[in-house]
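name: query_chain
kind: protein
chains: 1
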Amino acid sequence: MALTIYGSPMSRTFRVLWMAKELGLQYEHVPLDPRTGDTRKPDYLKINPNGHVPSIRDGDLVLWESLAINLYLAKKHGGPIAPANPAEEGKAVMWSIWALSELEDSIVTLVQNALMSAERKPDPARVERAKEGLKAPLAVLDAALAHSQYLLGDRFSVTDLNVAGVVAGLGFANFDLAHWPNVAVWLKACTGRKAFLDLRGSR
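structure:
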């Protein structure tokens, strides 16, 4: 089997597994768990010297970083989920970088606060900063979704999958999206897809 996906589905690896399911790809999944030291073992550090997940091996190619991997898989395998032209590809890259730079740190803080034990939770001031820091970027996303169902128009694409793969963490954090109704409707549509639900049910 050419494609191997490394990483626990409880990590950012979920985004890559979701993409593979959307594309109908055959793959081997190696569920490495950073919490148990799997990603610091010498064999894995040869694949990803950063010691993080996810990573993939596709033939002779090794890639890290979940959203970059998804952009690669979409471009390689095509179909309706892939960008249709250079303009759409540019937007897919733009929104993917935006999600990481504008949203992810704050969302991770809120997820940690919701799921971690009391002694490992971030301090309350950091949690409040994270909540405040989400307001402006969520407003940007809400405005982008005001006139179309998805980020590239009326079809779900890798652009939506990558951004939703970040925003979906707000569900674990019980974060109320009532002030951003377009985001709430869009996220429900993205995470209601069969590939997402199948993966979530198998975790």
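note: The longest strand covers residues 3-6.
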